[in-house]
Design goal:
- 2 copies of one chain form a homodimer.
- Chain A has 9 helices and no strands.
- The first copy, chain A, is mainly alpha-helical and about 200 residues long.
- Chain A has 2 domains: about 45 residues, Homeodomain-like (Arc Repressor Mutant, subunit A, Orthogonal Bundle), CATH 1.10.10; about 130 residues, Tetracycline Repressor, domain 2 (Orthogonal Bundle).
- The longest helix of chain A has 24 residues.
- The termini of chain A are far apart.
- At the A-B interface, helix 5, helix 7, helix 8 and helix 9 of A face helix 5, helix 7, helix 8 and helix 9 of B.
Chain lengths: ~200, ~200
């Protein structure tokens, strides 16, 4: 009840992920998550608004971390270089988190409702990054395009990292995806071609 | 009842948009939309599953048009050039549609539920374009990155077009956004810089 619950959030998060993996997100209740974690349902609701938010409890911290990392890059850096540096910083948050991320991604991909929530999270991240770039004097549409490109790189690099065995760090996948985006976007430099 | 209703879909769509603009999406019912269009509620539900889908009735056609336009580009074209050509084709669907698009965008931006639905539409578009590129032999992650970049360009160019007075065609905004993406992504070509 009122007693101190060591790492209640983390225990609830892992219990939820295990149950969602075993029996599916729709089939799991908050009471079952609390029980699996050895906590009360009341404790569950002290930490999370509902069973969906257990999977997105880190979303606002992730957004804050993204914005802080981007804001900390030199203002003289080209926007895409600032984004590259931001992704390097963000990748460090996922060290030792491969198994957790893999499990979470599988749960999310299995539910339309969770996939939608994940899209909202990424759109919110892109909007926050674009706003941060504008505050640094980057004009539109460059600010929004850089932010969208950065989030696309994050999404695709993350999915590829999660799809492998975890031996290579997330930072490598993000770097590869960004390099690939540069190659892709650079293939027609200097002219529009089919005018 | 069973009688022929000339352009019922279009009339319902315009009536819905007018009502959503006047009194808000949440405050409008399917019955009110049907009445405004001079049709029965039964006719409404023959055409649309619910009042949200009136705004997304064109989403699957748009996706088909995107995929068909991309598939029709020469396989020898670089993916980003194929995407540029696809955006040119898609822009023609929005000729004479500026006022409609402006009104629709304002309604969508005013509702969290509709913004989410719009995100799902764009994510589905990106996935369909990535699949089309893979069928043409484009490898991952280039296929997904090109598709995400194309949709980011579409989204941002579209928003900018809608935000202006309609004198300049959507195609121009899409071209500008794509060019800007190339500039943005190209600023650090040939090396990663901060290694």
């Amino acid at each position: 009840m009122g007693r101190w619950e060591p790492n209640a959030r983390g225990r609830l998060e892992q219990a939820a992920l295990d149950l969602y993996s075993e029996r599916g997100f729709e089939q799991t209740t908050a009471a079952q998550i609390a029980q699996r974690a050895g906590l009360t349902e009341r404790t569950f609701f002290r930490h999370y608004a509902d069973k969906r938010e257990v999977l997105f409890g880190g979303a606002s911290q992730l957004e804050e971390a993204f914005v802080a990392a981007l804001a900390a890059t030199p203002v003289t850096a080209a926007p895409i270089d600032a984004m590259a540096s931001t992704l390097e910083t963000i990748a460090t948050f996922f060290l030792e988190r491969h198994e957790f991320a893999r499990q979470r991604q599988a749960v999310i991909m299995a539910s339309a409702e969770l996939r939608e929530r994940e899209l909202i999270k990424l759109a919110s991240l892109a909007a926050a990054l674009a706003a941060t770039l504008r505050r640094r004097g980057v004009q539109e549409p460059a600010a929004s395009l850089t932010a969208e490109a950065g989030i696309a790189v994050f999404k695709i690099g993350f999915e590829r990292w999660v799809g492998e065995n975890g031996e290579r760090a997330l930072a490598e996948f993000l770097r590869e995806s960004l390099d690939e985006l540069k190659v892709v976007a650079g293939s027609d430099r200097g002219g529009r071609g089919r005018s």
